Task: structure prediction
Amino acid sequence: METTVIDAHNISKTYDPSGIPVHAVNNVHLHLTKGEFTALVGPSGSGKTTLLNLIGGLDRPDTGNIIINQTDITKLTNRELVRFRLQNIGFVFQSFNLIPVLTAKENAAFIMMLQKIPKTKREERIQALFDEVGLSDKLNARPAKLSGGQQQRVAIIRALASHPQFVLADEPTANLDSAAASNLMDMMEKLNREEQITFVFSTHDQRVIDRARRVIRLVDGKIEADIENK
Amino acid sequence: MWPIQLSWKNIWRNKNRTLVTVSAVAFATFISVLASGLKEGIFGNLIHDVVSSYSGHVQVHLKGYQDEQVIENSFAVSPSMKQEIQAIPGVILATERLESFALASSGENTKGCLVIGIEKAEESSFMNIGGKIIAGRTVAENEKSILVPEGLAKRMKLQLQDTLILIGQGYHGASAAGKYVISGMLRFGSPKMNERLIIMPIGSARELFGAEGISTSLAILLDPRSRPESVAEKIKTITGENHEVLTWGEIMPDIKQHIDADSGNMQYVQYILYALVGLGIFSTLLIMVAERSRENGMLLCLGMSKRMLQQVFLLESLITVLLGALMGLLISLPVMFYLKWHPLRISGTTAEAYKKFGFEPIFPTSTDPSIFLKQGVTVLVMGLILSLYPIWRIATLHPLSSMKK
Ligand SMILES: Nc1ncnc2c1ncn2[C@@H]1O[C@H](COP(=O)(O)OP(=O)(O)OP(=O)(O)O)[C@@H](O)[C@H]1O
Ligand SMILES: [Mg+2]
Result:
């Protein structure tokens, strides 16, 4: 049985910086189920980041509803939305994801700390995830001492450690070389498979697109294609 | 790991900058303490010198004496009044005086002078008569002998053991006249006093002026740390409606004004100092917020509340300022105590002026705990006020747009 994690209806977001309206996201319907491994693709400016921000509750749509875990997040107050994000959604950004003054372990546990999960439980979980993705020797390293790929892996552990409904990653491999990008995809696939983590990531990289099980193509803020890979 | 731990880690994110900021705060605290200590020391000492040389911190008169200083305006100090006043905390001594004008004549010479009858008790502890005697000896109680100042003696060509005739108007219009032997010569700091102040036991003065059992003033010397104004208020409740209770500032408004103006100037120096440190702290906060705007955006996107992020920044600036203030206080302690025990010596015209009035030409330093406390708290409050800047910046931060930059 498929469990719905995101149900977005009719969402639109229009930017009007200098009088000419830009329909960054134009009347989009989106349905995501648990365990998906989905790529959001499309040319630059097609609305990938805007759509991710909307379903992640970082931005508000002009119209439409976004239902996550039975909650319509467009109806939440700002404060409620912050809390909702913290409890339900994991984020991985393109770069500079980590807090420079904290170690890899502390960075990875950061969301769990904000969620007030007890220390022993936190450490156990982080240790297990680091072991799982082969980062155990970097537990106490500061971000500056990690490679770009390692930093992104820590960011992914942070995003999923507390079992969010889904993890949103906006071009997580954009700043990585192809080997590191491939490594990161391996890790995401593994966690998707073993931990049932739902991933939605945007990308321009064909090799990354090839690894997705579902590909949603955006053009001018509209979904142009939505295909099952393989 | 909560806001405090995150703040602590952030403080050491840029060690050099933190050290510079902490040192700047420490330096400013140190200079502020030094300036206050000197200010309190110098003016406290000056006031003490001025006040203890004659007026006392507070005086009780019959109502109207301050405006019309005549012997008619004198009053009887009851033993109970005196006792009650002496029991007020901070009062070191309360002593009666009878003052009036008289003509002093010896041979051909006649000069107007001020005769003061003083109580035996005050000779040593108040006006320090013993220390001012440059020839002869002090007067015994009820003795018909007097102490004359150096300046008057010179003008009237008086010698020890000469007889001086004092003529004046006594209480209730009685005539006052008497012959007195000069038992000692005095040297006063104040030129005015050195020219015309004649001292005798209060008993003899009362006899001379026919003013049995009454005094023109009750002069009160206080512990330097107590406030004359508040002691004066307490005395008023004892003396009641018929008397006036004046502080030294009310008795000598010109001197008070002078001291206030000088210490006010020093206050400005401190304000400038505070402004400089404030700017220093502020620029650090400015940089701190600017360079972390992206990171702050990310933290808010992840789900950290603005309130928690504000706490982190508030604690960062408070801890920095606190460290600086503590360091400054710690450095200032030995310096202040050194200066207290080895006061700065003044030179030049100021020194001459000090000497002329019989004051030691030094700038003493006060080490009153309130100085350290006040400066420490001032710097902290300043840090707290300046911390409103990052708090405001975070309040108005838009997480997404700050992450784009
Ligand atoms: N804050 C904003 N203000 C004004 N216009 C914006 C804003 N954010 C995005 N846009 C516009 O909305 C459209 C969609 O932008 P978006 O960033 O979502 O595209 P994208 O698919 O993520 O592009 P890229 O692949 O380059 O990251 C673009 O035309 C962009 O210029
Ligand atoms: Mg984008």
